[in-house]
Design a protein that fits this description.
mainly beta
Amino acid sequence: VQLVESGGGLVQAGGSLRLSCEFSGFTFDDYSVGWFRQAPGKEREGISCINRDGRVAYADSVKGRFSISSDNAKNTVYLQMTDLEPGNTATYFCASPTFCRGPSLIVVVNTQNGNTYWGQGTQVTVSS
């Protein structure tokens, strides 16, 4: 199992980025996928997730600005981020499986074998 994030970078406040999470070793039929972020000195937080049927959830802090989507044929999940703020600066990770329930429940869970899978992260830096 592997998850690989891409799309991070440096952007000015008010700008946009689209992150990608390409995964292998499982499909959406197996597990849902979530996006998480961790800023320096802060705990990791769940920000969005998507189920195989397209149901999604968002943290309150990103609702209306971030949008999650998936391309099941490509085993890829996207996170479109708009109107970025300096406070969004963090390393962004995708992970699976997740317990994903709207409007805002985004929790990493274990597989039946007790595993949780994380990508290596992609850095997003928003300058003021």
